[in-house]
Amino acid sequence: MSTDKPLLLVVEDDLGIQKQLKWSLDEFELVFAQDRVSAIKQLRRYEPKVVTLDLGLPPDSANATEGLATLSEILTLSPLTKVIVVTGSDDKAHAIEAVRLGAYDFYHKPIAADTLNIILHRAYWLYELEEANQQFSQINVRLARIIGDSPEIQKLCRVVEKIAPTELTTLILGESGTGKEVFARAIHECSLRHDAPFVAINCASIPDNLLESELFGYERGAFTGAHKKTPGKIECAQGGTLFLDEIGDMPLALQAKMLRFLQERVIEPVGSRQEIEVDVRVVCATNKDVLAMAQQQLFREDLYYRVSEMTLTLPPLRERGGDVLLLARAFLVNINKELGCHVKGFDDKALQALYHYHWPGNIRELQNKIKSAVIMAETSRISDSDLLLCQPREAAITLFNLREVREEAESHAIVEALSYSGHNISKTAELLGVTRPTLYALMEKYALSSNKDNSDVSAATSSS
After folding, report:
1. Strands 276-277 and 266-267
2. What span, in angstroms and rounded, lies between the C-alpha atoms of 445 and 464?
3. pLDDT category of residue 2 using cuts at 50, 70 and 90
4. N or C end of the chain, less CB within 10 A?
């Protein structure tokens, strides 16, 4: 239908009431059905959000049997649909039974247009809320594989939620092992293509002379060993998502063909002159600076701008703070199941070691370390020695005592302000937003020196 009005399915066998509703419910686009068969037919065709249903339907108009059966079938086929039962009977038992079966509301004839309009608007509003909640819940489930509470990761998750329903070609940047494929899968699973294939190919792991045939497929006899026609990864991803990992390693000669595919959405298998139309969303990833490569003519600049309609940059694990501990605990649960072990957790020294390690291999290295530690652990908890971390990050032990954290921050701020002001007490106090007596008290508390000459100190003291 071409109208922008909300569509309402009216299941009613009385032509007079149909006519009355048509004129009184002019805010809606009405579709009518007279019995159960036509009601289900219209339900399948128009997928209405709201239905009004008369319980007295033929061939048993005097009773509610047929109406209740229609109600059950509607809710079985479309559980979110809001069904408003309209009945001319004073028998409350039928109305109660309808609500028990899942009807949203019931309304007694004769029909008052104003009242019915209010009920209908509330039904549409509730449908929209439930639909939005269901979509949000599905997105949360699909994003659940992304583990992290750090602001950077939470921000990236919100970006994934926004871009997933679109068709934007996305480029994911980040060091090796930061979870680029996990994010690519999250984009696919949160998209409208989530029921179609997710096909991944690593451009760096396939020899240059074979990568074209792997991506675009080939005809029988196209080259030695091509004994039969074989579809490529792009064609296998039809209707779904193609993930090109390490696209920065794609040969320049192949990049031109890839660019044409992205622009025209057609492919030409190796050895064929026949073009094949494909409907595929593309997500790319690389650990290289492809923009710098493009400027150095090591990567096609036009291809770079084509694959980076949206760019996500994943932070390395060392910059994600406490996420390393969340990931470690999640990996421990999975590895326990995989290996049939029963390691309960980490001791305090192990937690400190995990937190302060530099993690050059990022999440992949963390997963491997946890797996080996589970095997090496001699007690129910993993120790720092089980982790075999030989290059700890140079950092002070993390403070969790609020008083100590506050004092350390206060002392640091005073030192920085003194340095910024050239150790001028008046300017330092102004920068910190305190009085000079307060600043002197704080400097005495933290044993800080102003490093000023005596005349400046005397002048500042006398003026205070």
Report:
1. antiparallel
2. 18
3. low
4. N
